[in-house]
Amino acid sequence: MNDYNYMNIDWNGKVCDSNGKIPGPLSLPVEYRPREKLMEHGPASLSDKELLSILLNAGIKGKNVSVLASELLERLDKEKGIPSVEELAELTGLGASKSCSVVAMLEFGRRRWGVSGTRIRHPQDIFNLIQHHADRCQERFICVSLNGAHEALAVRIVTIGLVNKTIVHPREVFADPLLDRASAVICAHNHPSGQLAPSPEDDEITERLQCSAEILGINFLDHIIFSNSAFFSYRQSGKLLEEM
Question: 163-184 burial string, b = 16+ CB within 10 Å, else e?
């Protein structure tokens, strides 16, 4: 059987069978199946609908996963933010469980890769970006790269430490910001104990990082220590070194 005769593309760019219906993934030739495409060519080769099909995994009787993914994509395209579980569950075939999976995926993606362009005007803005790391049982040392307008370019975990401390070296902190062509950085780490007071070690690494940033021509804006509900800012407290 010739696969070129089996499949057609409608005017909306959807893959259809000979009857004009959107087939489920298992009825497609292997090269059209989302999971196989992902494994063979990587995630960038998949359309948004195909990515959602993998996430949803299965449809319901009378509505295969491809149709459900199309309806979900249409709904998401109309949203300016992440919709609620209740709003997504209104789609027939989605339900609470799959709606939770979709919302969780969208929020995780926003936290990890959706920060680009976020304008940082206040330590609270940084806290909003990194607060979800506060519940970790080990310290995470985080570096935020910023452009000249103080818009976030990337948020990265530099190192993961022990229960009550993390070991970090300036070369690890500034390696990626240099590749980002960052004009400024803000560093942060969580205190699993919930105590926000900086330790002598925190003061020492802050001074080393600020001195290193000066040498590299990068503005060291702040060092944030944070817990689930609050944060300490070296900049606000006046503990940063004066301009060198």
Answer: eebbebebeebbebbeebebbb
In the block, residue with structure tokens 């993998």: 54
Instruction: For residue 197, give the 3-state DSSP assignment.
Output: coil
One-letter amino acid for residue 102 of the chain: V
Q: Tell me how far apart the alpha carbons of residues 207 and 157 are, in angstroms, rounded to a whole number.
A: 20
Q: pLDDT at residue 77 above 60?
A: yes
d(CA 59, CA 61): 7
- Nearest Cα neighbor of 148 from 183, 187, 186, 185 is 183
- Torsion from C-alpha of 178, 184, 190, 194, nearest 10 degrees: 170
pLDDT in tens, 49-65: 899 999 998 888 888 88
| Ordered domains of the chain (ranges, CATH) | 3-113 (no CATH), 123-237 (3.40.140.10)
| Stated pTM of the model | 0.72
Q: What's the number of CA atoms in the CB half-sphere (13 Å) around residue 46?
A: 21
The pLDDT, as a whole number, for residue 164 is 66
